Amino acid sequence: MGCIVQKFGGTSVGSVERIKHVAARVARVWREGHRVAVIVSAMAGETNRLINLVHEISPAPNEREVDVIVSTGEQVSIGLLAVALEELGVPAESCLGFQIKVLTDSMYSKARIVDIKPSYLQNILDRGKVAVVAGFQGVDENGNVTTLGRGGSDLSAVAVAAALGADVCEIFTDVDGVYTTDPNVCANARKLERISYEEMLEMASLGAKVLQARSVEFAMKNDVAIHVLSSFSEGSGTYVVKEEPSMEKVLVTSVAYKKDEAKISLRRVPDRPGVAAKIFNPLANAEIVVDMIIQNMSQEGVTDLTFTVAKADLRRAIEILKPTIEELEVPEILTDEDIAKVSIIGVGMKTHAGVAAKMFQVLYDEGINIAMISTSEIKISCIIKSKYTELAVRALHDAFDLGEEEGKS
Amino acid sequence: MGCIVQKFGGTSVGSVERIKHVAARVARVWREGHRVAVIVSAMAGETNRLINLVHEISPAPNEREVDVIVSTGEQVSIGLLAVALEELGVPAESCLGFQIKVLTDSMYSKARIVDIKPSYLQNILDRGKVAVVAGFQGVDENGNVTTLGRGGSDLSAVAVAAALGADVCEIFTDVDGVYTTDPNVCANARKLERISYEEMLEMASLGAKVLQARSVEFAMKNDVAIHVLSSFSEGSGTYVVKEEPSMEKVLVTSVAYKKDEAKISLRRVPDRPGVAAKIFNPLANAEIVVDMIIQNMSQEGVTDLTFTVAKADLRRAIEILKPTIEELEVPEILTDEDIAKVSIIGVGMKTHAGVAAKMFQVLYDEGINIAMISTSEIKISCIIKSKYTELAVRALHDAFDLGEEEGKS
Question: Does B78 lie at the interface with A, CB-CB under 8 angstroms?
Fold first, then answer.
């Protein structure tokens, strides 16, 4: 008899029927004798409905109040799920952020979890009940309601699992696990049985949408085993766990891609100390994340500087760069939104040479030009023209033997 | 510069437009330099929407969870109103039941307020902000969310006013004050300028819908002056205050009526000690409120017993009475849903004789038969046939000179 934490997202609790379905699923695990805590998101669409209401009143609403408003979505979900569980004869009790309490800092709309005391939840589990926990929400030390931002409910689930020392944190989503690549691009993409935190982290930041990076980070730091599986079908999904020796035998685990970045090139930038800081500091202050940066070899005291930002930030970035550009007398700014980032990921890379070379060769063989390259110990990313994305993903997926064997699936 | 508590009901905050309207109204008072706390209800329709969701899952949901769910309605309202106030340049901060904290007992869905500490609210007001308080909700001593039941937001407002020692508790409704009777029945009904707590209490329990009895009770015990006024128009409404000597000069203040009761008559009940207890205890245990009770003179050891209950409880009351009826061998039960209760109210009655006699005479003159009578120090109620309700109300309103003088309104 273990302790199991389960998390169901907004789609999984998107209607009364689905909430009943989730209740049945939770009931089954509870009836097997496990201690169960369930984390739920707001019903699909509810958070947007609430945000639209606020924006009808103010284009730039007070963030403290936005958190008070949007956190009600999860509050409704936990109440409904607790009622649905009791309807099945399973004793259940809903828990809000302030009750547990999920202590966060005071960064409204993107708060960080500081601490969760296990005692409130333990007490519910000790009484034989299922604890139904509101995801996404917490309170700061003054009792103000906070929310955790994007993917916040996953983070809540991992944090609750850590606090309870749960055996596993099951994240139910609309896919049935983590794949070697996007099955919409490669028909023979294969579901991974196990994957390391490090690989999952890279995949999350490189475009795989199944888990947010900070939930994985939190799980890694606190040694919480995550199990990603489908809320709409049965069967096992993908375990995200500590790196195991066997994992290094596989060179590449997956291929990821991302189309939401844009490239900015500054031509003939003076090549002297402090120039890079002058360019990137204002962007950082405006909270614009710069991803890849390339600086060419200097010639005649000037150099070309190329970097990528989120497409959504492109216009704002250009505005912010303008004064610096004028001051530095940079003659030309080029932008390109028509790009994609294709990446291969695998902990095995650390101990094997030649993986990068093979990736470049594969892209070259397909006639795909590489505009930028960035690497870490366990991933290699290339910026290419957007239209080649699927071609590149399929070629890499095949070249590194990631696909389902024929006649096997 | 005073301290003013304002309460806006669900209709007053029923849309984004109306919330903006309320914000403008609150802003005006705040700009005059007053300390302001505002209590709001859920947006009209929201509580019913949430209750319907719950009932799709369970016909008899856990009441703790229902409170968790329905209390979100007020949480959304306070966030939106705080945002609307800030949009007008008025600093505001929303407050939830657990934050303030509004300590209640643990009777979910109909909790009683035990205590409100003023410090949390005082702190907000001291910082020059408007405190926007969620009505209807509290927490018990274990931090469980509770709701106060019908008219709960009025009660929240009065309790906050008491805690803050406010100069006045303004209750904004869809009517512009308390009238001598229902203006839909008597075209010349007059708005009262002042009325005593005691009269308001009787009026509330006798059918006037403007304020719930328990809010008035709380105000009376804690000496909170209530001002009932319209959220849709300007101008003064009705003050509900401590009885003043001048009030006794008026014999009758108002005429009330109620059509939601039903009459049960038990014929030939054995007239011996303990029989009444045997009949009424099971009803009390089922939380069925018995209003008026009449027992006829005993003849040959048997008597007739007649009493009224809420129409909604009639079927259930009959079911509950059945075993007792059989045990006591009562030969006949009669029920009548076709009744109304008409009442006259006034603190002046206490010191004047003949008011009851005049009421009976007025009804007699209109050919209206009186089925039951009940009196207190400051009210007289008669049960009559439902179809005579309006006739009776108009006749009494005229006979006691309650109407607007002609050419004056």
Answer: yes
Binding-face residues of B in 38-57 toward A, CB within 8 A = 50, 53-54, 56-57
B101: preceding bond cis by omega (within 30 degrees): yes
Average pLDDT over residues A152-159: 96
Count of CB pairs separated by less than 8 Å, A with B = 107
Residue B359: what residue type?
A: M
d(CA B207, CA B188): 19
DSSP-derived pairing of the beta strands B130-134 and B92-95: parallel
Q: Which residue has the tokens 């919330």?
A: B19
Task: Give the closest-approach CA distance of A87 to chain B in angstroms.
Answer: 6
Strands A238-241 and B145-147: unpaired
On whether any CB of chain A is under 8 Å from the CB of B145, the answer is yes
Q: What is the pLDDT of residues A241-252, one digit of tens each?
A: 999 888 888 889
Of A69, A80, A84, the CB nearest to B76: A69
Q: Which residue on chain B is closest to A99 by alpha carbon?
A: B143
- For B174-213, the pLDDT digits (tens) are 888 999 999 999 999 999 999 999 999 999 888 777 888 8
Answer whether residue B408 shows pLDDT above 80. Answer: no
* pLDDT over 60 (residue B406): no
How far is it, in rounded angstroms, from Cα B9 to Cα B155? Answer: 12
Q: How far apart are CA B125 and CA B272, in angstroms?
A: 62
Burial A41-61 (b: 16+ CB within 10 A, else e): bbbbebbeebeebbebbbeeb
State the Cα–Cα distance between residues A299 and A269, nearest whole angstrom: 10
Instruction: Check A68 against B78: CB less than 8 A apart.
Output: yes
**Interchain CB contact of B19 with A (< 8 Å):** yes
Q: How far apart are the first and last CA of chain A?
A: 33
- ipTM value, please give it: 0.85
Residues of chain A in contact with residue B14, where contact means CB-CB under 8 angstroms, are none
Q: How many percent of chain A have pLDDT more than 70?
A: 99
pLDDT tens for B260-275 read 999 999 999 998 888 8
CA distance A215 to chain B (A): 27
Q: Residue written as tokens 């902000």?
A: B129
Domains of chain B: 3-173 (3.40.1160.10), 269-336 (3.30.2130.10)
Q: Taking 50 as the threshold, does the pLDDT of residue A407 lie above it? A: no
